[in-house]
Write a structure and sequence with these properties.
18 strands, single chain, five-stranded antiparallel β-sheet, alpha/beta
Amino acid sequence: SITEIRQYLRAQGIPFHDGYSCLHTPSLFTNGREDQPLPPAASAPYTLFIDKTTGSFLCTATLAEGTWQDFQANVELRHRGVPAPSSEEPEEDTRRAREDARCIWDRALPLWELLDEDETSKTKAMFGISLVTDATLKRFGVRYLRAAKSLVFPWFSPRDATLKGLKLMRVEKKGDAITYVEETLPRFDSYRNLFGLPLVGRRDTELVLTGWELDALALHQATGVASLALPRGATCLPPVLLPYLEQFKRITLWLGEDLRSWEAAKLFARKLSLKRCSLVRPGNLQPRPLEALNQGLNLTKILRAALPASHKSIVSFRQLREEVFGELVNSEQVAGVKWARFPELNKLLKGHRRGELTVFTGPTGSGKTTFISEYALDLCMQGVCTLWGSFEINNVRLAKIMLTQFATQRLEDQLELYDEWADRFEDLPLYFMTFHGQQNIKTVIDTMQHAVYMYDITHVVVDNLQFMMGHEHLSVDR
């Protein structure tokens, strides 16, 4: 707990002060003499951040990171005069991803320096950024890869500005509909780029968090306010990024233009500390930032009208008025995320909504697990972060069922396609608890709460209650 963390730091003589999401301390990894005590609080740069919820730490000066147990081990090593281990060499997959990213980056051209002005204007029009100036594109370092017809957004290390990875974005047209397809190096689960972070000054105290790189460009250009894009949009705010957001006294979340973005903003605000967060509510006059720029709206005015994330315990209808109007205007979105594979289910349940419990019952062998795995997979493919607790069948068998449903074909007969489908399946926001059979209910709940904090889980599946609780508990403990 946070109390135990504070007690440990005091007992070890480590100075610290409270931040919004983290405790700030001098780093164990930056001093030359490891057998020396930490410098006085007044002279030490507080570059090590300890997450108040999990105890995990990150040193922003050296990028050393680890669990609370790792932190304690390093403190013990320091007392013995043993040097703290330096940052580990990147794993083979990470190193290869960085090499691939460097090759793509070197082949890509600065978007503001394409030889043909006509090509530049057509490319900008294709991505809806005709009003984004060359100066803004240059400031953020956006490039264009001709071969893939993709914009390239760089991920530079906050420590030494080396290239750690990148995101590719291309446009796909299906009839009149336009979709943006994204690909990252390294893969999504290792891609932690707060796009725009190198442009943030140490004295900046206000920030706008967006869910899309193009929105960050539009916002910064229109308002001059520090603007960052989250690596996975409104899907997830990884706790490992929280230390980089500690310096800001005011954070406005403007994640998108639908109710899912609004719900995500409220979830992220709790993680960032409600008292410093404001939220831009989606609406016709408050679309996503790039669309607002293209429509000629005043983005500064929209930011000023952002709603405080924290409310007093008692509110009047005046404070609820805009939210009520939003629910009336967006009645379809309020109904929840629709299933793409089960149109008949949409007629019954309308959609998946947070905070609701759905119970499926049926005799043994009737297909509950098979159905629920596809039911959950459908939502997961639409960006709903999902946690599976499979207490009856093991995770390998469950993953095999879900992968087959995802590929919509029997991979046993086409093993050469396995890696292709497995790579795509791996990018889904899907996580599995490792329990099997009867479990202590408190341990399961603690695991769920941890997953909600770490991965912003919004859908939990328990299969099934009977196996998790054990037969003897079902009749006496609801």
